[in-house]
Amino acid sequence: MVECTHGSTEDAPELVNLVEAIEQRVWFLYVDGASNPGGSGADILLWSPEGHKIEYALSFAFTAKNNEVGNEALANGLSLVNAFGAKHIHIRSDS
User: Fold this and answer.
1) 54: nearest Cα among 23, 12, 88, 86
2) Rounded to two decimals, what is the model's pTM?
3) Domains contained in the chain, number
4) Using one digit for the tens of pLDDT, what is the confidence trace for 40-61?
5) Where does the sequence pass through the membrane (predicted)?
6) Which end of the chain, C or N, has fewer beta carbons within 10 A?
């Protein structure tokens, strides 16, 4: 036999604080893009809250300026972050 009772709302802050702590796990996204007459590309580095490192190197099949390549790197990095379900992100870019 199990007895279940509904706790008062005074018990809720502990649960809320736990949920906030889990949700505030910060991911770090670093993006860098470069363009020259020989082509354009970008590097994406993503660090998880647990310290896992995910690296991507992108090569673009279009001519672009440095800022455009940086924007593409950021867009691709944000897609990657979204795929992992990250909620809190610190982003670093030179663009």
Assistant:
1) 86
2) 0.68
3) 1
4) 888 999 998 888 899 999 888 8
5) none
6) N
